Amino acid sequence: MAESPPARPGAALVTGASRGIGAAIARGLAADGWPVGVNYRSGRDGAGAVVAEIERDGGRAIALPGDVTDPVVPDQLFERLESHFELPVQVLVNNAGVSADNLSPSLTDEEWATVLDTNLTAAFRLTRRALKPMLKQRAGRIVNISSVVGLRANPGQSNYAAAKAGLISFTKTVAVEVARRGITVNAVAPGWIETDMTAEVSKDLLAAVPARRAGTPEDVAACVRFLVSDQAGYVTGAVLTVDGGLAA
Ligand code: NDP
In this predicted model, what pLDDT tens digit does every residue of 37-83 receive, in sequence order? Predict the structure, then answer.
């Protein structure tokens, strides 16, 4: 019989968890014993299905609506999650992300702002909110979902690349600021992962991936589960690529 996961002293918040990578992370953390807040913006049914699946497997979860680009939402998400489980948030996974591709000469202000607001500014605000209690508890794990595009060029994605590279620099600096308080802050940089976000991308591009296949949301979730685990207590300020060798 499988060993049951340890009881956790806190809860985990995963942003953008109604589908794709975020949903896999939420399921994975719940399997590791974390009560999980499944944040979503518009995908109420998807988030509900993730919660139902976690509960069916014996875990605990709550769906939490909220557009992370709204400055009032971080407080709302933390307050709802903490009061529901009567536990502090000890894990934050900044996963919510969007892309709006265009070559730089044609990139609109709106495409720039949407991508920066969602992928970078929202992660900053949520991290700031998470750190307040984590600093008092002298414990906490923050994982930011960046991208290989934050490490190397990808034509047509200068807004997304700037946001994801910014997220890596943000991760490293915050990690150093809080390391002595027992909090780790790391980034995961996925390559090509099969989700709605990559549904329109030509499969011909897989030839550039050394592993010659796309990754799965569970491949990314496995990295997050490691970074959140007790075993990763000395890993901070790191960028873990999960890309079949694409950025090597
Ligand atoms: P999907 O498009 O499949 O899912 C995106 C998720 O983010 C959805 O749950 C969506 O919620 C949520 N979301 C988007 N905007 C907001 C917002 N303003 N507030 C709250 N939630 C929001 O994307 P992926 O699963 O593919 O991507 C997840 C993360 O991984 C992103 O940060 C992405 O940049 C990153 N990534 C993905 C790669 C890939 O190949 N797929 C590669 C590298 C990085 P809803 O549906 O409710 O609107």
Answer: 999 999 999 999 999 999 999 999 999 999 999 999 999 999 999 99
Q: How far is CA 127 from the centre of its chain?
A: 12
Mean pLDDT of the chain: 97
Atom of ligand 1 nearest to the CA of 191: 42
CB of residue 145 inside a 6 A radius of ligand 1: yes
Determine which residue's CA is closest to atom 10 belonging to ligand 1.
Answer: 16
| Residue with CA closest to ligand 1 atom 38 | 193
Architecture in CATH for domain 11-242: 3-Layer(aba) Sandwich (3.40)
For ligand 1, pick from 13, 25, 39, 40 the residue to mutate: most ligand atoms within 8 Å of CB. 40
Helix (H, G, I), strand (E, B) or coil at 86: coil
What is the rounded CA–CA span in Å between residue 156 and residue 159? 8
Q: Report how far residue 122's alpha carbon sits from residue 113's, in angstroms, rounded to the nearest whole number.
A: 12
Going from N- to C-terminal start, the domains of the chain cover 11-242
**Ligand 1 center to 20 CA (angstroms):** 7
Nearest-angstrom CA–CA distance, 34 and 100: 33
